[in-house]
Amino acid sequence: MDFHFISRDVVIAVGRSNTILRARDASVAAGATWTALSSGKPSRWHWNAVGFLDEQRGWVGGSYGTIIHSSDGGDSWVTQNNGLNTDVDILGIAAVPSSGAVFVVGTEGKVLRTTDDGGTWDLLNTRTAQAVHAVHFLNAEMGWIAGDLGHVLKTLDGGDTWLIAGAGPDVVATVRTVHFVTNETGWFAGDEGMLYHTTDGETWEGQTSCGEGNINHLHVDPVGLQAWTVDSHGVICGWSSGSLGWSLEEFSNSVAMNAVKQWEMDFPLALGNYGEFKRY
């Protein structure tokens, strides 16, 4: 399950059983009103990731190597040919407005890039066959991918080449999320509360999460003053600049939380299983 802010008020959320939803009132503290959108796929399709370049152009990825595209803000969706076989699951999407590029990652080490709205998808050589769960781009040139066995890779040229950027061979747990706010300051996190932080882009220091579940997503505000994680036990953790560490923000009744994001510097939103949606 994933979601993406198209604007301050409009959010697209995706999930299991061919679920694609849109809320036009996401900034309302009392809770958003969701409307189902049609992808044209049967219910066996599960969607794992969503990303938009702007208010109109967006992509959703999931089961069977499928990528669908909307050019009208989610009103309609079309399947795009991408060359992946049906054994691949799409796990992450990053749209980069500054360059117009969109990156898609998934199982079997697959990383795809399009620069023409999905007319063509190029398979990138990342030198890994491990599942890639997360992709994050800071700007048109600099980005990171992360996945199984502690793998974290970075690119300095928009995805043409990839360099090892992880915490070393002792980190072998699955990395499920990576986020940078500058070319030197960032985090990655994953299974069993694994959480690492860097302030120079090269060396990583382990941090203690406030939960014990698998960290499914980590988000940092645009200026790096606050950060949040959500995990498989429903724990939402928070961090702020100058604090001594991560602290408990909320416990969501053991419902797994899957994504946390914000529009610019607004309050963050967290989305979990069974339609659990929190603004705090």
Could you please describe the fold and organization of this structure?
The protein has strands at 2-5, 11-15, 19-23, 34-36, 47-52, 58-62, 67-70, 78-79, 90-96, 101-106, 111-114, 122-123, 132-137, 143-147, 152-155, 163-164, 175-180, 186-190, 195-198, 205-206, 215-220, 226-231, 235-240, 247-251, 257-261, 269-272, 277-279. β15 and β16 form a beta hairpin. Strands 1-2-3-4 form a 4-stranded antiparallel sheet, with no helix packed on it. It is built from no helices and 27 strands. The chain is mainly beta and 280 residues long.
Overall pLDDT, averaged?
93
How is the largest sheet built, in terms of strand order? 1-2-3-4
Q: Which stretches are low in confidence, meaning pLDDT under 50 for 5 or more residues running?
A: none
> What is the tally of helical segments?
0
Q: Strand-residue fraction?
A: 35-45%
Shape: globular
What is the helix fraction of residues, given as a range? under 10%
DSSP summary, beta strand count: 27
Note the run of SSEs as H and E.
EEEEEEEEEEEEEEEEEEEEEEEEEEE
Keywords:
280 residues; mainly beta; four-stranded antiparallel β-sheet; 44% strand
Question: Secondary-structure blueprint of this entry?
Answer:
Blueprint lengths: L1 E4 L5 E5 L3 E5 L10 E3 L10 E6 L5 E5 L4 E4 L7 E2 L10 E7 L4 E6 L4 E4 L7 E2 L8 E6 L5 E5 L4 E4 L7 E2 L10 E6 L5 E5 L4 E4 L6 E2 L8 E6 L5 E6 L3 E6 L6 E5 L5 E5 L7 E4 L4 E3 L1
Antiparallel strand pairs: 1-2, 2-3, 3-4, 5-6, 6-7, 7-8, 9-10, 10-11, 11-12, 13-14, 14-15, 15-16, 17-18, 18-19, 19-20, 21-22, 22-23, 23-24, 25-26, 26-27
